[in-house]
Amino acid sequence: MVGGGLAARSHLLDLCCGRRLTPVAVCTAHPGTARQVAGTFGIPRAHHDVTAMLRAADLDALVVAVPPRHAPHVLRHLTAYSLPVLVDKPGARRAADLADALSGPGRVRLCVGYDRRYQRSARQLRQILRHGVLGAPDQVRCTWTADFTHRFTASGTYRDRATFADAVLLDTASHVVDLLAHLSLLSPLPRITGADVRRTTAATGPAFSFTIDATPDTPHIQVTADDGPPSWELVVRGTHGTARLTGHGLVLDPPRTLPVDAVGTVRPVEDLHRLATGLPPLGATPAEAIADLTVLDLVREYLRRPWLRPRSKAVARPGGAC
Known about the structure:
There is one protein chain. The protein is an alpha/beta fold. The chain has helices at residues 6-17, 31-41, 50-56, 71-76, 95-101, 120-130, 148-151, 164-182, 270-276, 286-303; strands spanning 25-27, 45-47, 62-64, 84-88, 109-113, 137-146, 192-197, 208-212, 220-227, 231-238, 241-246, 249-253. The chain has two domains: 6-115, 3-Layer(aba) Sandwich (Rossmann fold); 120-264, Dihydrodipicolinate Reductase, domain 2. The chain contains ten helices and twelve strands. It has a seven-stranded mixed β-sheet with strand order 7-8-9-6-10-11-12. α5 links the parallel β4 and β5 (109-113). The longest helix has 19 residues, at 164-182.
């Protein structure tokens, strides 16, 4: 395990509760944190240098759960190894950073653990859309709510050390974008036609929102995140029906039998075994993770557009003056 924060501890709990893998070493930037995490989870080795850990421990797999700005630095150390690697989402702050980190020599067996991909109902909706059960999707609405103000001021993680705008896009908007991509509802380079993000926790308005224009093959998409009880939903409207996906499951209108999904809902660390045995991961591949970050880059680019004064047009008066 590389990392000792909230995400790393969540993955460690999953590892300790599972039967396939046993945590044998943990590495954090500070030796004291590494020793503390090792003591909490009964891990025999604690390190504060990734290269030293890779040389000292006989590892079968690796989990990287560090802040996005540090993940590329860690990943550069792994290109010389063929270990299965699970990276906590989104894997970097920018698409170019992740692509550069994985461009070194060697073959990295890696996936990025976006939670919605491990949800059975999300994969069922993917099958439904692929088989055209809803007809052609023409509109998608994504709504996320959470206590964003508290999450990004008192979390004790990178969230409260980054700017609110950057943190909320990486932490929450990345989930939305990846789910849309997983469901094949996004074009490779979608056209952002509107975007807004709260600049600070003290500001008012939605945490973030953005609109993606429709193409001949993809629907119009509206995404909004705001303060409220923790909840999320994605609604897809097609020519033959509507699907509503939430954390509790999938509902179709009109009702239909859901496709069979033999895998079920699993935890991201299960992907390490899939990667080790040659099975395709449920999480995002490197190319998919880079594509997710590319969409976030497009949202940031839209937000940086300069404000242009509206051009006025003279209106004629009945008397001839204008």
